[in-house]
Amino acid sequence: MSIPKYVNGKIVYESISPKDVWVTPYSNAHREFIKYAGKLQALALANELPQFDTGNEAANELWNEVINRSDGVNLFYKNEQQISTGASLIGFKTSCCVDDNGELTKGTELFNANPLMYIKKAGQLIYLLVEICQLKSKSTYDYIICQEWVKDSTVTRNVAILKKEYNDFFTNGRIPNKYNVDTIDFDELERNNIPPEHNNFYRNIPYKLYVNNADCKGDLDDIDEIYFKSLDAYKQMLPIDMLISRTFAFVNANISKNFNISKKMLTATDNLIETNNSQTQYTGSGVNLSQGVSQAQQIWTSITNTIRTIKELAFLRIQASDTGKNNKHTSEIESLNANADDMIEMKANTREMDHIDLLMNWKWFEWDNNRVNLDFKRSDCKVMVTGSTAWLKEQAKIAIANQDGYTNPNAPKNNVETDEGDDN
Predict the structure, then answer these.
(1) What is the reported pLDDT for 23?
(2) In contact, 170 and 161? CB cutoff 8 Å
């Protein structure tokens, strides 16, 4: 197998051994937390559309058409969920749709995509391997069709990756092999789903790469895996504890022949067991019950403490139940979430800059692909994302209290200016 590298201004492929790219696989609890953290981040940063302004009215109208054509709310929501795992892509493509007059028109559409491999230089993508679609060959093997892009190149290449190797990459970090699409026996109908390899020049790769942080890693990747493995162990202990701590019935053999003791124990109205004194005077009582001591409470306490530790290390919001006490005041919980709120504000500020890059990529795509000249510069663009510093200053003024009912003592007061006339 080989991976791309940037050497002397060119993309070259270097052969590597599979053992050189092995990554410890995630535990089940880790995967659950990744989904949970992704939903929290999407709810915090993409619960409404970002506000875009290019400083050009005509460009704003065209951009609004692109957002409507792309189902913008779900587009940015899915994008945030994917970003939380490390990286995500928003791509550009030309599609046809029916306008308000019932006429078929061609326009730019945005779409979500998963980056498989990429290389950046000076903040720009110079190499990208991105998932396109999934197909099945006649030999029943499932393939992921990917497109390989190289900056300042007039050709993109379609490659196929076995779905098993593709999943192994996202689960274990193993670099997959890339196969030539033309050598795979796809049906002609399926082959039609593979997009053509572009031969027109693009100023930039028509994708905007979003990363979660400077290391391009998820927030949970820096947390020791032992915490997640502990949660998996605790979850396995709970059903075992339930079995061990249940009631065991020790029954005299003579009695068990005449009565179904198990049925009587589980029946609310039929709990009468007849015994013969002559039979039990030497053997004792006919039925003896014994029950183990349950450790469920201690296990739940360990689960709660571990979950809280993971949330604190990942700067995720903490609920009252995570503290082990349900009588904490809302203000106390808010003080515990100060780091989480700062993290959301920082990510929102970063996302505003990312979206400005998205606008600039769109500008060049419209020119390269549709020969539409959009007259705006980067310095003209303004974006506001929910949770950013700008949003807190402009939008949060209308809410003295947040959804939890916590009154913000720093919320600005409504200042009413009165004209008392001119003293002169």
Answers:
(1) 47
(2) no
Q: Are 24 and 181 in contact (CB under 8 A)?
A: no
Token output for 44: 């915090």
Left, alpha or beta for 371 (phi > 0: left; psi -120 to 50: alpha)? left
Q: Is the pLDDT assigned to residue 171 strictly greater than 80?
A: no
Within a 10 A sphere around the Cβ of 119, how many other Cβ atoms? 17
pLDDT digits (tens, 9 = 90+) for 106-143: 889 999 998 988 888 887 888 888 988 888 888 778 89
The whole-angstrom separation of Cα 44 and Cα 344 is 7
- Percent of the chain predicted with pLDDT > 70: 72
- List Cβ neighbours of 328 (8 Å cut-off, separation of 6 or more): 320
pTM of the entire structure? 0.78
pLDDT tens-digit profile of 77-95?
999 999 998 899 999 988 8
Mean per-residue pLDDT, 166-187: 81
